């Protein structure tokens, strides 16, 4: 159901494509991202859009979902948190490339009440290490 709904909304947005740079999808945290929205992401790529997604860290298999976003989609909005929990520092190199290209990096949370105060400090520290 979620994939069909995402495709319906994607197609409905196409008349406004001149105002859209990229496509971002949220997904149920208990199901793998890539398999759930693969057709929508591929259609968006084929249509020339940039793609990204959001993954929550406090859900079952969240690190697996974030890894899928990083390695299968090439983008994610949770990458620095993933690095903190897995120690995969090589991904920081990609973040540095993004930063050096002039793309702004945000350190934020969509659930600030649920995030411990040390979360922000850890992410700022990792950013400093770039």
TrEMBL record:
GO terms for cellular component: cytosol. GO terms for biological process: adenine catabolic process; hypoxanthine salvage. GO terms for molecular function: adenine deaminase activity. It comes from the Eukaryota. PANTHER family: ADENINE DEAMINASE, ADENOSINE DEAMINASE DOMAIN-CONTAINING PROTEIN. This is Adenosine deaminase domain-containing protein. The lineage of its organism: Eukaryota, Fungi, Dikarya, Ascomycota, Pezizomycotina.
């Amino acid at each position: 159901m979620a994939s069909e709904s995402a495709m319906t909304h994607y197609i409905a947005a196409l008349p406004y494509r001149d105002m859209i740079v990229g496509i971002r999808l949220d997904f149920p945290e208990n199901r793998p991202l890539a398999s759930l929205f693969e057709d929508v992401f591929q259609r968006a790529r084929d249509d020339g859009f940039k793609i990204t997604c959001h993954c929550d860290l406090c859900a079952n298999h969240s690190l697996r979902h974030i890894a899928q976003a990083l390695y299968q989609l090439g983008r994610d909005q949770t990458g620095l948190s993933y690095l903190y929990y897995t120690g995969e520092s090589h991904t920081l190199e990609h973040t540095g490339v993004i930063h050096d290209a002039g793309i702004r990096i945000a350190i934020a949370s969509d659930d600030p009440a649920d995030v411990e105060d040390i979360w922000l400090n850890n992410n700022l520290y990792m950013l400093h290490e770039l």
